[in-house]
Amino acid sequence: SAVPVIAIDGPSASGKGTVAQRVAKALGYHYLDSGAIYRIAALAALRRGISWQDEAALAKLAQELDICFLDDEIYLDGEIITEAVRTEEISRGASEVAVHPALRRALLNLQQSFRKAPGLVADGRDMATVVFPDAQTKIFLTASAEVRAERRYKQLIEKGIHANLAEILQDLQTRDARDSQRAVAPLQKSESARLLETSDLSIDQAVEAILDYSRADA
Ligand code: C5P
């Protein structure tokens, strides 16, 4: 039978990355951060002088990417870029390159190659709708824009990075709009996905809820 997949989709800063990693660890499953793949594409393009608007060049670039995820680090062409893909500029770039259908197609096999025994937890925007439509468990994880902005703000302040709550909220709303309104693979709850609203949940509670769902779906 097919290797089980738990697909977790949701908007920016919903906490799905943290929650997905914890679920993967609890089950001993592999983990795919699909957003990181779009971030890497944006960074690689920037470095090679390819415009985030140049769909054909981006699709070609995607075929040539030498990416490796190892021990919590991300490598591009052998260089650690874990921090470099987390900047605000690359967050914007990722959501700009992600609108191009040819690039999304070019990144499909790479994402699907993460599906290996004993199982995979994959987080992103279109895990349940496009990349793993046959996922055993599908979760749409959200929180209000205000709660997400506050979480992101606290993260930055804790890291000693200057941050402005109003700007963060504005930025999140711009990215949400671009991700939800694009023609191809928009951020959207799959009909068969369970809605998990985390505004009033702790990380532990969200992880427990998903583990319960995955047991129910097994
Ligand atoms: O999840 P993260 O914020 O790292 O994703 C960065 C951007 O990549 C998102 O804003 C979205 O535009 C894009 N993305 C996507 N499909 C995915 C994951 C991310 O289009 N499966």
TrEMBL record:
GO MF term list: ATP binding; dCMP kinase activity
InterPro entries: Cytidylate_kin, Cytidylate_kinase_dom, P-loop_NTPase
Cellular component annotations (GO), alphabetically ordered: cytosol
Organism: Methylobacillus flagellatus (strain ATCC 51484 / DSM 6875 / VKM B-1610 / KT)
GO biological process, one term: nucleobase-containing small molecule interconversion
Keywords attached to this entry: ATP-binding, Cytoplasm, Kinase, Nucleotide-binding, Transferase
Cytidylate kinase domain span: 6-214
Biological classification of the source: Bacteria, Pseudomonadati, Pseudomonadota, Betaproteobacteria, Nitrosomonadales
Enzyme Commission number(s) of this protein: 2.7.4.25
Keyword check for Acyltransferase: no
Protein name: Cytidylate kinase
Superkingdom of the organism of origin: Bacteria
SUPFAM superfamilies associated with the record: P-loop containing nucleoside triphosphate hydrolases
